[in-house]
Amino acid sequence: AGLRDQFPERIPPAVEPLIDLMAPPATEAEAMRTLSAWGTEEATEAFRARLGHADPRLRAEAAWGARAVGDALALPGLRRLLSDPAPGARAAACAALGILGTEGDRAALRPLLDDPDFEVVVEATLALAYLGDPEVAGNLEDLLEVPDGALHDTAVLALEVLGTPEARAVLARSREPRP
After folding, report:
1. Higher-confidence residue: 13 or 52?
2. Hey, which of 12, 45, 67, 86 would disulfide with 96, CB 3.0 to 4.6 Å?
3. What is the pTM of this model?
4. How far is CA 49 from CA 95, 96, 144, in A?
């Protein structure tokens, strides 16, 4: 259970002061991370409003927040962030669309597989897998080779979610002993 379920009487009063803190960028980013755990309507609206913020860190935090609270109404703003000049905002938008998006978002995500930023490529790959794009199994196989345990585990999960014959073959190969 989340904080909202555990302490329903405490969350509504705490939301307003956190939204008020969202003025200096560093404080605002921290407040947004805290708000994403609660998912109140006020928090959701604050994330949506900040998808177009001048500070790229806040645009990225807003995308992560929209993803965390499951805000489908943020989809237009998230789609716009796919072409954001800031790689962190593009990566966060990819991650959010992987959870909130539809099969129709795959065409907008595919060009990001060639993005110059590694994090953007990773998040676009994962988003496409979560949206059922069979063409990303090869990218996921490449991610299994990256020496990062969390990224490896995420790629395995994405392959399992993808579930195509090629994805299953990649998983089988990844479990084979190496010479």
Report:
1. 52
2. 67
3. 0.78
4. 18, 16, 36
